[in-house]
Structures are given as structure tokens and as C-alpha cells.
Amino acid sequence: MNRYRIPEIAEKYMKYDMIQSFTELPPLSEPRLRILHAALNGQLTTAKHSELFTLVTSLVQVGLDTHDLIDTDGQRRSEREMRSRQLNVLAGDYFSSRFYQLLAQAGQIEMIARISGAVSEVNRLKVTLYTKMRSLKVTAEDYYSQAVRIKSGLFHHFADLLEGSVSRLWPELLNKLSSCEVALDEMRRTESWERFRSSWGYWYIIQVGTDEERYKLTSASMENRYLQGLVEKYGIHSQLLQLLKQSGQEVKTIVNRMESERLVDEMSRIVDHMLNTLGDHVPALNETR
Questions:
Q1: Residue 212 maps to which CATH number?
Q2: What is the pLDDT of residue 122?
């Protein structure tokens, strides 16, 4: 049984002075990675590769998430902002490429093809979503479902390596777990105008708000006080919190349907820890600003 230590191992591939000086890397997806490691580690056919497969998945995910930090706005920037932008490009490419090296060294050529295919699919989903957003042809519901698909996309292909009830339940489990993470991410995005733009709350207000509110949302900037007024008026936090709680409960229900008691216990602990951790953020996010 391999102890989960992906953050410690991944750190040596991610901790570089140049990157830390000019930009901030996105965090690892602990819930998805822990669930993946537990599933792979719980069966004889994949246990010996559970750490390697989870590690390379974490690096590819960080690479994709780092590329998402790149601001495509064409306005003039300071030298430091330009350096940060360049490092986001290079760091994302670097993290994405390390999985090739690690898997090739281990002779896992088939896994390279699997992950490469998953990356292509995630990028296709992103392009489709961004195209709809640019033309203002996306609803809040469309945005949320696509965000869940994008967040879970890198992990779906592991279903073919799993067995029994874990394999059958994997897509559903992964989608509901990703929904929890999307809900929390979207709650955090209400904290500033820069992050709120093109978020779930943004598209929800575009959909149901007044003409004046829609006009202000599509402008170049917005005062944080006005933004927080909109967030409170349309109950953005409470709606996302409800989605979080509902998805969390569905995750626990799915886990309890698995055949292995040991795996049920382990995954239940992971889910409980995730929900407790997420809950710690909710009061702060609901404060009136």
C-alpha cells in the first residue's frame, strides 16, 4: 500500500526560484489526485504504478492550469507583468513536458498516448467554451457543466484501467467531485472584478440581470463595491454553496456503492476531508464586503 505523497514529490518539479519570483502557480487538485491515487492503489493491476500515474497527472494538470493564467488582453504591461506572462507560458510547457520524460523512463508509452489524448480533449473543450463566451452565447448552466467537464477531463481515461464497481462508477464520481471543486472556485472568483469576469456568477447576472447591470458587466472595469452588491443581490454565494453541498452529498452516495469496504472507507475519508476543508472557506466568502 503506497502512502499518498504526491505534493512532496511534485514539489521538486515545481519549485524554481525564477517562477516563484515572478508568478504564482495554481495549486494541485488534491481531491481529484487523492481519489485517483486511492483507486489505482486499491487494485493489484495498477498499485505499482499508482504513484507514477498520479504524479504525472498532477504535473500535466498544473501545466494546463498555468496556461489558463495567461492574460490575453493586449494592453501595455510593465516589465514585471510581461516576465510573469512569459513564465506562465514556459512553466506550463515545462510541467506538461515532464510527464513525457517520466513515463518514457518507466516504459509507459501507452500512458503517454492516453494522457496526450486527454489533454487534446480538454483543450478542445476550452476552445469551444471560450468561443461561446467571446460571442456572449453561453448561459450560466452551460458554463458550469463545461467547467466540470474541463476540470475532470484529464482523469476520465483512467476508468479503463480500473476494475469492477470502481470502473463503472468512476465517471460519475469524477464529475460530482469536480463539481464540488468548480463550485468552490467560482465562489472564490467573486472576490475581485479581475477574477469575476467570465465566471459562473458573471454569466448568471448576464442572463437574469437588468440592462444596466449587463452593460456594466461588459465594461472594462467595475468597482468592487458595486460588484459585491450584485453578488449579494443575486445570491451568487448561496447558489454556489447549494451546488457544493449537493455535489458533495452525491459524491458520498457514489462512494458508498463501491464493492471494496477498504476503498469505501479510504475514499469516504478523502471526501469528508475535502468537504471539511471547503467548508472552512465558506464563512469568509459570505462576509459582506
A1: 1.10.600.10
A2: 95
Cα(206)–Cα(227) distance, rounded to whole angstroms? Answer: 13
Residue at 1 is within a domain: no
Alpha helix stretches (DSSP H) within the chain:
6-14, 17-22, 30-41, 44-47, 50-68, 79-105, 109-134, 140-152, 164-188, 193-196, 200-208, 211-217, 224-233, 236-255, 261-285
* Residues whose CB is less than 8 angstroms from the CB of residue 197 and which lie 6 or more positions away in sequence, other chains included: 217
Domain that holds residue 118: 6-285
Tell me if 125 is assigned to some domain: yes
**pTM of the model as a whole:** 0.88
| pLDDT over threshold 50, residue 285 | no
Give dist(CA 244, CA 250) in Å, integer: 10
Domains identified in the chain, total number: 1
State the Cα–Cα distance between residues 198 and 140, nearest whole angstrom: 10
Residue 24 lies in a domain: yes
Region of poorest pLDDT, from 41-45, 89-93, 269-273, 277-281 = 277-281
CA geometry: angle 102, 182, 164, nearest 5 deg: 60
C-alpha cell at 34: 487523492
Q: Is 281 part of a structural domain of the chain? A: yes
Q: Is the CA virtual torsion 266, 271, 272, 276 positive or negative?
A: positive
**Average pLDDT score over residue span 140-155:** 97
**pLDDT tens-digit readout, 200-255:** 999 999 999 999 999 999 887 889 999 999 999 999 999 999 999 899 999 999 99
Contacts of 151 (CB under 8 A, 6+ apart): 29, 32, 178, 181, 182
